[in-house]
Amino acid sequence: MRNDHTRPPELTSVTSGGLSFAVWDWPGDDPALLFAHGTGFHGRCWDPVIRRFPSQRCLAIEARGHGRSSKPRPPYRWGAFGPDMLVVLGRLGVRGAIGIGHSMGGHTVTAASALRPATFSALLLIDPTIREPELYGTTPRDASFVRRRRARFSSAEEMFEHYRHRPPFESWEREVLRDYCDFGLLSSDGEFVLACPPEVEASIYECSKEAQANLHAVIPSLMRPVTVLRAGYSGPRTFSRSPTDPHLASRFPYGREVLAGDHSHFIPMEAPELVADEIRRFL
After folding, report:
1. Would strands 97-102 and 120-126 be described as parallel, antiparallel, or unpaired?
2. What pLDDT does 159 receive?
3. Which of 32, 95, 161, 237 is the most buried (most CB within 10 A)?
């Protein structure tokens, strides 16, 4: 298992409402950088970005259903993720952080910022799952294929070899895929199982267009710098296509859009340095 031996993170846990939330905490200077992962991922997928900020405090929260956090039974409503994050950051005394969220994580930091404005001084939303307003309340996504996803492996190495030549993983930087596999499995009965079970991932997709996931009513109230780093990929309509409202940046009072060239929805996995550059703008 690979690690950043120069500044290893501390794995802590915050308990609330019968659930525990795992947090990876790298010590360093304020303002803290708060990283929120996308659906099906975990906090250590951010390692290649975090390594580029050796003096900054960095926090990577693992959402309910993911990583080393609790996994309650579905459904997974999107309205829960923002309050979960605020519980964790409140216990850790975090204020004025820079919120960095990918996909579902972008939705989460936006929701948390609306609920408690002092939490974040700026937001970097990386192809966030914040859809066009008219898509909320429409037919749920079909996620049946996600439930059929392979969930057990003999090792992280087997998982890496299973995915390395398959889309979308084939376009990821190798170190990101290694981190995804090394930290994305949990030991169970002599095997290793996905740290985000397929039924959890599927439920999140199915709930993503519910009315309670619609943040458009609160977005105009977010009076802080917001950068929307949006995928430029225009290929077949798969998970590689952007789920982001193409007008999202203009809906924030201080929004700015950056189109990420030909990169797909998986920008942090394909281009960690591009993500780091946008964080440096805020610092």
Report:
1. parallel
2. 98
3. 32
What is the structure's pLDDT at 2?
A: 47
AA identity, residue 258: V
Instruction: Determine the Cα–Cα distance for residues 255 and 249; give it in Å rounded to an integer.
Output: 5
What's the CATH class of domain 10-136+211-282? alpha beta
Query: Are the CB atoms for 227 and 250 separated by under 8 Å?
Result: no
Query: Could you tell me where the beta strands, DSSP code E, fall in the chain?
Result: 10-16, 19-26, 29-36, 56-61, 97-102, 120-126, 152-153, 185-188, 191-194, 226-231, 255-260
Per-residue pLDDT tens digits for 104-158: 999 999 999 999 999 999 999 999 999 999 999 999 989 999 999 999 999 999 9
Confidence of residue 80 (pLDDT cuts 50, 70, 90): very high
Question: pLDDT at residue 3 above 60?
Answer: no
Task: Give all strands of the β-sheet with 56-61 in edge-to-edge order.
Answer: 10-16, 19-26, 56-61, 29-36, 97-102, 120-126, 226-231, 255-260
255-260 and 152-153 strand pairing: unpaired
Using alpha carbons, select from 162, 156, 158 the residue that is nearest to residue 195. Answer: 156
Spatial CA neighbour of 89 closest among 120, 126, 44: 120
Helix (H, G, I), strand (E, B) or coil at 273: helix
Nearest to 181 by CA among 210, 153, 208, 205: 153
What is the average per-residue pLDDT within 179-200? Answer: 95
